[in-house]
TrEMBL record:
Signal peptide: none annotated. Keywords: DNA-binding, Transcription, Transcription regulation. It comes from Pseudoalteromonas luteoviolacea. It comes from the Bacteria. The keyword Disulfide bond does not apply. Belongs to the LysR transcriptional regulatory family. Residues 4-61 form the HTH lysR-type domain. Pfam families: HTH_1, LysR_substrate. One of its GO terms (biological process) is DNA-templated transcription. This is LysR family transcriptional regulator.
Amino acid sequence: MQKLNWDDFRVAHVVAKAGSLAKAAQVLQCNHTTVLRHINRLEEALNVKLFIRHQRGYKLTDAGYILSDTLPDIDAQFVALEDKLQSVQQDFSGKIRITTVTSYSSLLAPAMQAFRQQYPKVRIELLATDEVIPAQSGVVHVALRAGPKPQDPDLIVRHVVSLKMAYYASQSYVDALGLPESEEQMNEHQWLMPDKSKYHIPFIHQVIKRLSNESIVYSSNQFLDIQSAVISGMGIGPVSEIEANKHPDLIKLDSSTLFTTDYIGSLWYTYHKDLKENAKVKALCEFLIDHTRHLSV
């Protein structure tokens, strides 16, 4: 067997995901001839066909599927190794990868700016998503999760900020249509509510079950969308108190205990225990806590 080159495996993995040489070349920022050379060399070294070539692109053989399924785990191990080696040096340079929920990513900007001013050689990559990315995947260094405190024994967890929500309407909506003064009047108004993915939240469920379909004029799977719609004057809906404090023309509903301000959890700074000595990860945590303390309710 010829000597294997790890770069060839990396290129093959990109081709498997992209489906063609041209698309893989774009991802790798090289020409398709270079990509083809890597694929041919790997197949020759392994003496195994990994791809079936045809006019519509590159399809995986059985061996190719095994390669494609295995490489992400190997890649994650290399990322973890890189992180551990960088932790030993304890220098403030290189990248730090963060994920957080979409609705709260904008809250982090002041802390990120302060962190970058203190450590200008550190580059920040932020992935805003509602999906939970496992810490052991190696995709990110840090995850900021909203909700109950994570219980994963492999995580180090720090509290960042408490989160509260209430129901609000804009002054323009109130001027035009008023506010419900009782539960009986709720369906006389226009409601902006999260979709079914959020119905399990008690604060949402207790209102949703009293609304007719016709009175819910706008819905979204993102609280950020709902908040923007409330601010625009479209109707009544849940808004975080952090966001509401930025808009003095928002009116809080208080005509019923249904609308009572409710805790929906907290924002938690989490990272894998293998990174407990990583200077960048620990320093960023302190910056986030310091620069969001004023947001706690």
